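To fix ideas, we now present one chain and its tokenised fold:
***
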Amino acid sequence: MRRFATPGETVRISLREFDGSDDWVEVRAALSYRDHIELRAMAVSGAIQTPDGVQLQIDTGRAQLELLCRSIVGWSLRAADGDPSPVPVTRELIERLDPALGDWLAERIDKLYEASRPNSQQGSSPGP
């Protein structure tokens, strides 16, 4: 059982399933506890009082984008097909990913990290 997130440990996600390409995205193998609680806090954008109690307002998009920014450490993505080398991994370029690719990656990354959450149940995802 993992006790600490190891900064240099990574996992490579192939984009073959997404678009049939040989491209890949490399992500941190695990999030730190700090990352986990900060992402969870980001998902809550506010709270409102209702007759049934307090209801949290959830902004999963903001947390999902931050999940990608905190986890992606490398990729083979190029700006154009003929470019000789990949573009650098930056927050700006992660924000500019195609929405379908961003959603697909966020789902894969969340599943990767779900296994390390002690109270996670298969098929349910309480958030990052």
